[in-house]
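Encode chain A's predicted structure.
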Amino acid sequence: MKKELLMKEPIFDFVSKNTHGKMICADSLDFLRNETRGKYELIISSPPYNIGKSYETKQSIENYLETQKEIIRELVGVLDTRGSICWQVGNYVDKGEVFPLDIFFYQIFKEFGLKLRNRIIWRFGHGLHASKRFSGRYETILWFTKSDDYIFNLDDVRIASKYPGKLHFKGEKKGQPSGNPLGKNPSDIWEIVVRDWELEVWDIPNVKSNHPEKTVHPCQFPVELVERCVLALTNRGGWVLDPFAGVGSTIIGALKNERNALGLERDQVYCDISLNRINDLKNGKLITRPVNKQIHVPSPNDKVAQVPKRWLPNELTQQKIF
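Encoded structure for chain A:
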């Protein structure tokens, strides 16, 4: 039995009073089979990776992908003809062997006629340390569209140009500015720590213990990642869907930018957390990491940035001491 949690805006003065945020506690596949066709401008989610987290049951890679295929079939049905799907995935690991999930999901989406527009790299600085392979520090976002006529609001996500004064040096536009007055395309390298806009690198931290958005969910979406997709791939007043909503970060990212949002989640604990976060957003109490905030870089004088003396060769240690 599903439980529906409905929030109506406004959240703040600049958010439309007609904006809605829904969190429905139900199985995604059951709900989607009865949902309105063609409703959503953007479907964005991070499906379970089948790695044995508390909210999933680990199964063979074949069974896992078949289950995901059923859900994707329904998602394509509820997607607007001008809509996009952003599917954020990492790796499935079995007995030390890595299976990059984006490769498998690409085939599924193509089977349903979707077209890949970008394979975005989300790099982050923290995570588990591997002992028998290099530690993973990135995941991917596959951006698919349903047609060639799709929503893409590039102006809403442009960044400052490196050389705004650069001019055309030949042709009919010789002497005129060669760039866009609104900025340049931010590229398709999404790193989550906005550390170096000049190199067109999007860095956004993953949500770990000291992140301001952290909840009990072990694999939580950063709101900033959602916001970039929402701004670029939807219009104000459009609908955004997350079929694996977790603790509601997609809903929050959509509502902050005057979009309607629906989240589906079968775990009651996560549904309740989502409702609390949405209420906090409505009341101006929710803490989120600001979009484009620079990542802290420790000073060389900070203790955490210095190599412990016990790690240094004896002679170097003695030089330091004496």
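The mean pLDDT is 76.
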